[in-house]
Specification:
The protein is α+β, with helices and mostly antiparallel strands. Helices cover 57% and strands 8% of the residues. The strands form 2 sheets. A 4-stranded mixed sheet has the order 5-4-1-6. Helix 1 runs antiparallel to helix 2, helix 10 packs antiparallel against helix 14 and helix 19 packs antiparallel against helix 20.
């Protein structure tokens, strides 16, 4: 049974009644399966988080019927005394069973399992702030919702907003260019998912910017409205407004698509290059530099891609980089993703995870950042923490890209989403819609 969230007035996943009922059935099926796997005695509550908990699930009409582009992102709170490791393994297995079953209806399901004591004392992160702000209780007692600890938005470090931006940029990079052209030619759902990934990128860039400002309205449409107003009326954002001016009129259309699933209206409103995501890196580059500057305590307006990447790479510091690199070398899981030779090759330039982020950013911003292609190829060979051909610096742009995208996709799946390969692309990560 779906109950009301703190800030979603009627417990609706989306405005349209039929789409709500469709998504609600998927959510309840997933929550029941997870609770049963963890054990009714231990599963104190199951929450839905992310945009659907705010009434912004993206459910689209296709030639085959309704389909949810939004993930079902669940948080299972386990009671005191529960074996946390066993509960997480049970949830992982439940997710592995569920994803193939719901694939025709929904992008997927993820579950994060947390002990109740941690839920009451959340760390100041964007994901925890959003959970505490609008948790949709799917299973359990309302007291579990009331017991969730609050997060003060002023305690969330800018670095979390930066990580948020990095993750979205990599997601859009991996989605490729399927968001344009004849839907029948590349697959209707593939096309819609690519456009959905662009919408998430554009809207979450706005969200990250607002988190840095400590002023984040609840819904995407209100967030876009505030961002556009700030750009057009505040002197302090004049330079930013000049960079993002071509995109300000597009943002409301992306927000409407994200919150209603009306892809026909989106395609009528936006040009083909916007639908394909080809314009998104330019918007992202402007917002990324702004959030990076706030994180590092410096002004990066006008910085080139080489300058901004250099500042990002320096942020970790040699001592921390060496310590983290040594830790990665001692981990069998890390070594399977980051070969020892690649870790050692760049240990002074950064540990594997920051270097993987940089690799994704270099590929994503290759055209938008205005950097010479020769510099980009050299930088990729310098920073990539993955196995590369011996002649990597001499590879063509396309060959370098093709060599790096598979390990980057694995990095995104296993490290950023917390998903293990044996899950078939599913797991117990903490990614939010």
């Amino acid at each position: 049974m779906v109950t009301e969230s703190r800030e979603t007035p009627h417990g609706r996943y989306t405005r349209d009644a039929a789409k709500h009922a469709f998504f609600a059935a998927i959510v309840e099926r997933c929550a029941d399966e997870v609770a049963a796997a963890v054990g009714e005695r231990h599963a104190a509550a199951v929450f839905l988080i992310g945009a659907p908990s705010r009434g912004e699930a993206t459910v689209v009409e296709t030639s085959s019927g309704l389909h949810s582009l939004s993930d079902v992102d669940l948080v299972c709170i386990v009671s005191p005394g529960a074996d946390l490791a066993a509960s997480r393994e049970a949830a992982r297995q439940a997710v592995a069973r569920l994803n193939p079953e719901i694939a025709p209806l929904c992008t997927g399901v993820d579950v994060s399992v947390r002990p109740c004591e941690r839920a009451g004392r959340p760390t100041p992160l964007i994901a925890h702030y959003e959970l505490a702000r609008s948790p949709m209780l799917v299973r359990g007692d309302a007291a579990a919702r009331d017991a969730l600890g609050q997060v003060d938005i002023h305690d969330i470090p800018p670095s979390d907003a930066l990580r948020f931006v990095h993750n979205r940029c990599i997601e859009r990079l991996l989605a490729g260019g399927a968001g344009v052209g004849n839907a029948a030619a590349c697959g209707e759902i593939v096309t819609l998912r690519a456009q959905y990934t662009t919408a998430k990128l554009m809207l979450d860039l706005v969200t990250a910017f607002l988190f840095v400002r400590r002023e984040v309205p609840l819904g995407y449409e209100d967030r876009v409205r505030l961002f556009v107003t700030l750009c057009r009326t505040r002197e302090q954002f004049r330079a930013l407004a000049q960079e993002v001016a071509p995109f300000l009129d597009e943002l409301p259309h992306w927000a409407r698509f994200k919150t209603t699933g009306d892809w026909r209206a989106l395609r009528e409103a936006l040009p083909e290059d916007a639908l394909a995501g080809l314009r998104a890196p330019r918007f992202a580059f402007a917002l990324w530099r702004r959030v990076l500057g706030e994180t590092l305590g410096t002004d990066l307006f006008g910085a080139t891609l080489p300058e901004a990447i250099a500042r990002l790479a320096e942020a970790e510091g040699p001592a921390r980089s060496l310590a983290r690199s040594w830790k990665a070398l001692r981990s069998a899981d890390a070594r399977s993703l980051f070969p020892a030779t690649a870790v050692l090759r760049g240990a002074l330039r950064g540990s594997p995870v920051p270097r993987a982020y940089i690799t994704g950013l270099l590929l994503f911003f290759a055209d938008a950042g205005g950097a010479p292609r020769e510099w980009t190829r050299t930088a990729l060979a310098r920073y990539a923490p993955f196995a590369l051909p011996a002649d990597a610096p001499a590879l063509t742009d396309d060959a370098m890209r093709q060599a790096l995208l598979p390990p980057l996709a694995r990095f995104h799946r296993e490290v950023l989403l917390g998903r293990r390969p044996e899950d078939g692309g599913t797991g117990t990560g903490a990614a939010t819609d």
